[in-house]
């Protein structure tokens, strides 16, 4: 089963590379948000540095939604999802593989690029490193939560807006603790490891619950 899951991950990564994927679009959208917000707030560098982690996290949440509606919809349209459902691999394994591939092409590049984009919001080295670490720990939760909405809207054409309405409220806890952890690293009253541990726990919970819920949603039409 492990070999089949890795094969599914490699398949989705190859498809993302051929089609262009949502990873590049997510990075561009991420850069657009981070670049435009300072223009709206003005030249106050102290203000930008205080809310910089929140800007990066909000941009990451919104960027994760790009292409998320196609996570299962493309396979639903060409019949690949029916073949995967009939395969010996449990549907939960299929969901895990597809979400992992989505995070590798979307969440991971955002986390790795966040220190560079942090320069646009006047973050210092400590804040950049802390924000990147929180994004590495928290963006998998966004992908797993988004997978539930993607599974529910897999059979709905142009279901992107419905998907956003479904999953955005569920992403708020990860957003809160991600920003709290990044701000704690720059002199907050709470130790950095406390909100980071909560964020990691939310990711683990989202991985388990999101995988089971998305698989159940995909089985529902049957």
From TrEMBL:
Membrane topology of the entry: Multi-pass membrane protein
Keyword Cell membrane assigned: yes
Domain of life, source organism: Bacteria
UniProt-listed InterPro entries: Cyt_c_biogenesis_CcmB, Cyt_c_CcmB_bac
Keyword Transcription regulation listed: no
PANTHER family, alphabetized: CYTOCHROME C BIOGENESIS B-RELATED, HEME EXPORTER PROTEIN B
Function: Required for the export of heme to the periplasm for the biogenesis of c-type cytochromes.
Name of the protein: Heme exporter protein B
Family: Belongs to the CcmB/CycW/HelB family.
Subcellular location per the Swiss-Prot or TrEMBL entry: Cell inner membrane
Keywords, ordered alphabetically: Cell inner membrane, Cell membrane, Cytochrome c-type biogenesis, Membrane, Transmembrane, Transmembrane helix, Transport
Transmembrane segments: 21-41, 47-68, 103-123, 129-154, 161-186, 192-218
Pfam families according to UniProt: CcmB
Organism whose genome encodes this protein: Methylobacterium brachiatum
